[in-house]
Structures are given as structure tokens and as C-alpha cells.
Amino acid sequence: MMRTRPLKVALLGCGVVGSEVARIMTTHADDLAARIGAPVELAGVAVRRTGKAREGNDPALVTTDATALVKRGDIDVVVEVIGGIEPARTLITTAFEHGASVVSANKALLAQDGAALHAAAEAHGKDLYYEAAVAGAIPLIRPLRESLAGDKVNRVLGIVNGTTNFILDKMDSTGAGYQEALDEATALGYAEADPTADVEGFDAAAKAAILAGIAFHTRVRLDDVYREGMTEVTAADFRSAKEMGCTIKLLAICERSKDGTSVTARVHPAMIPLSHPLASVRGAYNAVFVESDAAGQLMFYGPGAGGSPTASAVLGDLVAVCRNRLSGATGPGESAYADLTVSPMGDVVTRYHISLDVADKPGVLAQVATVFAEHGVSIDTVRQQGKDGEASLVVVTHRASDAALSGTVEALRKLDTVRGVASIMRVEGE
Amino acid sequence: MMRTRPLKVALLGCGVVGSEVARIMTTHADDLAARIGAPVELAGVAVRRTGKAREGNDPALVTTDATALVKRGDIDVVVEVIGGIEPARTLITTAFEHGASVVSANKALLAQDGAALHAAAEAHGKDLYYEAAVAGAIPLIRPLRESLAGDKVNRVLGIVNGTTNFILDKMDSTGAGYQEALDEATALGYAEADPTADVEGFDAAAKAAILAGIAFHTRVRLDDVYREGMTEVTAADFRSAKEMGCTIKLLAICERSKDGTSVTARVHPAMIPLSHPLASVRGAYNAVFVESDAAGQLMFYGPGAGGSPTASAVLGDLVAVCRNRLSGATGPGESAYADLTVSPMGDVVTRYHISLDVADKPGVLAQVATVFAEHGVSIDTVRQQGKDGEASLVVVTHRASDAALSGTVEALRKLDTVRGVASIMRVEGE
């Protein structure tokens, strides 16, 4: 069974993930060969600067000329773990043009240019695999794309960013504010010096776009994903959540509409009941909940980032792509045949928890309730708390569209008796 | 892209799972065709008696002659959801001989004859897929076999039987005894009239054999799996577990030894800490925890049985097998190259919780402690409770081999001061 000519792998990028990929390819060479049916050989490692990459690798393999490496013509698989849009995008398309298949961990690029990259792969009859782009080591792309290929996915609800889950978990367990929890995350290496991509939800939005595309067999672009960060979540929000038997998580939510003709994708902080499996996802872990017609509710849990976990996902793809090459086949490509409408955030229907600062006088509740009623937003519960002439009103609604809720809030802000809207938080997972 | 000649599917068995497979093949025909790249057509449904199967299916498709159906020669994929060893085994090998690939949900058969069936599939260049055989809709075979193909799995720890989890969860939450909880499970349809296969761990043992084989790339036969049922778990055991901050689950545990050269597989009730993700798996749900070198800890959770969830897994495999046929390739076959030693239960190392009924007089603890020491089993904690001249002694050990523990218990039984060994339970997941 075993072929002796090795499959040649070009590794683009040799940082935290790339160096782990290179290390495991060496230490697990025999296992990889047995599982693929042929040996795999690291044919080159492209880096920006050669200094550090030479440490663990054969110096003769290390190059700063990534383009020349992917153009060599004898490369079977290009593993792209550079990240970012360019030069990764050009290198991947060049790889296809020169006969290689590609394994990528690049969520930003896949979310932005997935359709074009899939088209390039298909045009050249090559594979494009990217399990590592979403939720690190957690098998998610393959289960959605293959295990559930005979089912109809209605909802994907996930914690797909470890940094923000670490911060929110810390706020939940210690009562700390956002800044304090962020500082701890930074000190421990869970947050980058510039945490914008994580805390503003850009990273999660890229993953939501990828997941929605695969789950619904429909192209979902990054611009289609509604995005709200978690920098404004306060310790008071966590106290409110606790009163409701909830906690707060930054969620990526991809949903099919009830009539099945449209989908939505969004990222924002939300309250979820403590009884929901996602509520107990601690620290920097990720977890994704999938709901489908036949399978029901599934959950996938694990480390969402880190060199080794991401390398595990990359190598799983590498084995699959190598096996495909040996058998002359390709794996499932982009599946966008369903071509459903991607609806805007206004169409999203969910429940809301709204905190209002109001004047502490008779008739305020009636006024507020009237505004909700006028916008067709039905109230589930109201709680009033008065102190020193000021009062707060906490309203939890039944399910309503985001558009109706926005209209309600706008009208509430115009009421003389409403001093301010302290917070608006969606309630999910019920 | 779309081929017009349909792929022909023969369905063997039309019970709870089979009828769902047939239903979804009809209602989701367009989606399946788009995902496969060709339409799939139900070419025949083999049943034992034609009466009921005719209800949902075209009567012309229904036959009681399964052998003739798989021998037709124009069948692309045989879906076997009959269960049991025969006639399923002969029908599957006949299918390979007549050019079909096979999707099966048959855990008993795969656990017993997996190697022979894989060999038959390979000899004929056909696929044998069986995601539905373990943990219903939960993607598990594919993640272990493909997503983690570049990683080294060290441990699989799972709740793979919904009936027993329902019973144990009921005992935990209500304080009920085994029989009372079983009666409720039977009344609600979670347990069969004869619950032996579930409560004695036979079902879980078959799944453990399959999981261990895939996780460790080594043949693990059903006989290699140590099996202990959960019929002797008592309400008192749950009280003891609670005192330790634990609950009790029937676990399937597949482990690689520390030196990497051998593996073990076993099924038995065990205490696990409430903080372990498996502790919160409720009702008839299944969940499997996987630990690997690079990915770290992953968990897969979902409905482990039922017509629709199992059908979801079957159809995911059907799509994959059909795609493979169209591209002239086959998916990953059996991977048993590692050929590790499968060690007996005596070699398993874990912790133990032992309840002894002892005479309430001085020196008993010293006697008991001496027996543990003589057998090299180190004690972590001891708790003594005296009442009316009788006393109970609860010993929790450090990690020790099953052989050492068995020797200890045998010696304890011979002590005059030990009236009886009330329970021995392993402690896992720490």
C-alpha cells in the first residue's frame, strides 16, 4: 500500500502554529506516513525573516522567498499559516496555479475571499481545507460540511473567541470590570497588546461568516455579519444577568429563518441561561452548539486557539488533502448552491434585556409600557427599583425583531421621564 | 457539475432508523443531490415483513428478499440498519462482492467483525462507513479518523449509552434506586423491555471497541473490552459520590498507556467530579471526551440514539460515500497499522472508592490500612462512621493498578473484622 515517493509540503509561516506543524511533521513522521499511505516531507519553510525559523528547522529548507517556494512546481500541499490578507491570498492562488492543494488556518482571508479562493481551487482541481480557521482544534468545519451533509442545519450558536471568553468568564466569576479583566488577560498572554480584533468581535465575525456559509450552503460575506464588541459589558450587566439566572457570553449566531428562505449571521454579547451548555464554557475554551432537523442539538467543545491545537487541525487537513492527492480525488469544495438571502440585523428575532434610568414618579411605567406596545414589542417582565428620586426599570421582552426593538429604544430615549438607556442586551439560548 | 444518472441506494431495514432515512431521502432529495453532485434514488427497501414498511414507501420498492436486492448489481450504496450479526454480516459482504459501498449503523457487528468487514471492503475497493454506530448523531468516527489524523489520541472517555445515562441521571437527581429509575426509563421508552444490552454495558462495550480501534489505529476486539454493568449501583453509592463532589456515570474508557506501547478499553460505572464536563450530561444524551497530544481536550455532545439523530449520521455517511463513488475514490479504510498491545484490565491504573462494613472496635483501621499497604495500594483518604457496634469505612485510594486493587479486596474479605465489601467504584476524570 505504501508509496515511497514522498508528498512534498511547503510551509508558509513559521510562528506559533507553523513551528508546531513543522515539529509534529518530524516527530510523527511515521504515523503520518501510515495514515496517508505515503511519507510526507517538509520541502520548504517560508518566513519573513530567517533568524528564528532556522532554530528548529533544517536551515537549507528556510527561505524568505515564499513566492518562489510555491512556484517550484513539485509541491503537493501548501500549508498557509501566515494569516492576514496579503501576501497570503496571492500565495494561495499561486499555489493552485502551480499544482498544489492548500491547507490554511486563515479565518480573515477565508471570510473575506472564500468564494474566490474556492473558485480558484476548483478551477485547478485542487483542495482548499481550513479546519484550523474556526475554533482551533475543535472539529467543526468537517462535521458541518461532511457529518451533517445529509441533515438541515437551522442554527449555529457558538463561543468562537477564547480571549473574550476568558475576559467575560473573569468578569462573571470575580465581579471585575471590563478593563480589569482585560488587563489580566493581557498579562497572562490571552489578549494581544492591541486586543481590538478580539474584543470588538472582528475575529468572531470572520468565523461566523465561514460557519454560516458552510452550515447553510450559502455565501455569507464578512460584511453580511452584524458585529458588536464586548467592551461595553459592565459588572452591572453581569449582576443583571445573575438575577435572571443567566451569564453573558460573546456569541456568534448563524440562523436560518423560520420559513427557511433566508439566513442571518451576527456577533454580539448576549445573556444565556446558566442551564445552557455554553454557559459553563470557561476560560479561553471555545464551544459551538449546532441545531439541525434530524440530529437535534450537538455541541463541540475544546481549545479554540494556541499553537498545538491549531497545528492539530492543520495536520488533520494535511492528512486528508494528501490522501485525496494519492487517490486523484478532491474533497468537498464550496457548497453555495442553496443561495439563500442573507437578511440584515433588523430581521433578527430574539429577546431583550433593557435597563432604563427613569424618573421616580407615578406614571413612568405606564409611559414606557406604551412605547413598547406601540412598536409591537411584547413585555415579559418588568422590575422597578427606586432610589433617591431616581429609579431604574429593567424590562425583559418576548421575542421581537431587532428593527422593532431599535424603534422602541429610539422612542424611549425621547421620553422626558427616561434619563438614559443604561444597557440593552440580547437574551439567547432559551 | 450535476450528473443526471442517479446513484442507487438499497435500504436494508425499515424500522425507527430506516424509515427516517427513507423519509429524509425523499424530503431532502434536492439538497442531497446538490451536496453529492448527482441525485440519489431509493432503489429498494428490504424488510422482514412487508406490512408496515409499505406505509411510507412506494410498495414496488419494498421486498423481503434482501439478498436479491444487494445482488442486483446496479446498487451503488447499501444502507444497513437491520442491526445484529446475521443476516447483516452476510448482506454487507455480499454487497461488496456485487459492487456496492456500505453505510452501516451496526455497532454490534462492527465491534465483532470490523476487521473482516474492512478487509472485504478494501478487497473490493469499496467504502464502509459507520458514523451512526457510535453515539448516534454525534460526529465522532469522522473527527477521530480524519480531523485528528495528524494528532496522537491518548484517551477517549465517554458516555455512549443514553439508556443508562437516563437511569443514572434519574438516580442522581431524585435519590431513586436502580429499579425505580429503570422502571421510569422503561415507561418513557428510554429502556427496552429487555434492558440487558444497555444496563449490563454490552452496547457501550461494542462502542468502546470501535472507538479504541479508530483512536489508536489498532484492532480492539469486543473481547478485549472489560465490561461491568450498572445494575448494582445504589442510592448509597450516589450519596457517597456526592460527599466526594462527584456523580456516577457509566463510562467507556479507552486509554493509551504512559509509555505509548499498549492500550486498554473498558466499560464500567465510575465516579467523576461534578466539575468534569461529562458530569453535566443529562438524560439520554451522550458525550465523548477526547484527549490528544496537540489538540488537548475536546468534547463532542449530542443525542446518542433515536431514529432521526441516527438517520442524520447515516445520511452524512451516504453523502460522503456517494461523493467518493463519483470521484472514483474511497475514504479512509481501517487503520490498524500501529498494532499496539491491548492490555488486560489488571493493567489499568486508576483511583478507587471502597466502602467496607467493619466491626466497630479498635485496631480495625490499622488492619485494613496494612492490607492496602501490603498490596502497594496507597490510601488517599479514609472516613469512619460507627453505628450500633457496626461501622463503615470509606477508603479512597491514590492511583493503583486494577490487579493490585483486586488483590487488596480479596485480602480484605478474609479479615475477620471486615463484615463485607459494600461497594467498589472507580474514580475517573480527575
UniProtKB/TrEMBL annotation, chains A, B:
<keyword id="KW-0560">Oxidoreductase</keyword>
<dbReference type="InterPro" id="IPR045865">
    <property type="entry name" value="ACT-like_dom_sf"/>
</dbReference>
<feature type="domain" description="ACT">
    <location>
        <begin position="353"/>
        <end position="426"/>
    </location>
</feature>
<comment type="function">
    <text>Catalyzes the conversion of L-aspartate-beta-semialdehyde (L-Asa) to L-homoserine (L-Hse), the third step in the biosynthesis of threonine and methionine from aspartate.</text>
</comment>
<protein>
    <recommendedName>
        <fullName>Homoserine dehydrogenase</fullName>
        <ecNumber>1.1.1.3</ecNumber>
    </recommendedName>
</protein>
<dbReference type="InterPro" id="IPR002912">
    <property type="entry name" value="ACT_dom"/>
</dbReference>
<keyword id="KW-0791">Threonine biosynthesis</keyword>
<dbReference type="InterPro" id="IPR005106">
    <property type="entry name" value="Asp/hSer_DH_NAD-bd"/>
</dbReference>
<keyword id="KW-0521">NADP</keyword>
<comment type="similarity">
    <text>Belongs to the homoserine dehydrogenase family.</text>
</comment>
<comment type="pathway">
    <text>Amino-acid biosynthesis; L-threonine biosynthesis; L-threonine from L-aspartate: step 3/5.</text>
</comment>
<dbReference type="Pfam" id="PF01842">
    <property type="entry name" value="ACT"/>
</dbReference>
<keyword id="KW-0028">Amino-acid biosynthesis</keyword>
<keyword id="KW-0486">Methionine biosynthesis</keyword>
<dbReference type="Pfam" id="PF00742">
    <property type="entry name" value="Homoserine_dh"/>
</dbReference>
<dbReference type="InterPro" id="IPR016204">
    <property type="entry name" value="HDH"/>
</dbReference>
<dbReference type="InterPro" id="IPR036291">
    <property type="entry name" value="NAD(P)-bd_dom_sf"/>
</dbReference>
<comment type="pathway">
    <text>Amino-acid biosynthesis; L-methionine biosynthesis via de novo pathway; L-homoserine from L-aspartate: step 3/3.</text>
</comment>
<dbReference type="GO" id="GO:0004412">
    <property type="term" value="F:homoserine dehydrogenase activity"/>
</dbReference>
<keyword id="KW-0915">Sodium</keyword>
<dbReference type="InterPro" id="IPR001342">
    <property type="entry name" value="HDH_cat"/>
</dbReference>
<dbReference type="Pfam" id="PF03447">
    <property type="entry name" value="NAD_binding_3"/>
</dbReference>
<dbReference type="InterPro" id="IPR019811">
    <property type="entry name" value="HDH_CS"/>
</dbReference>
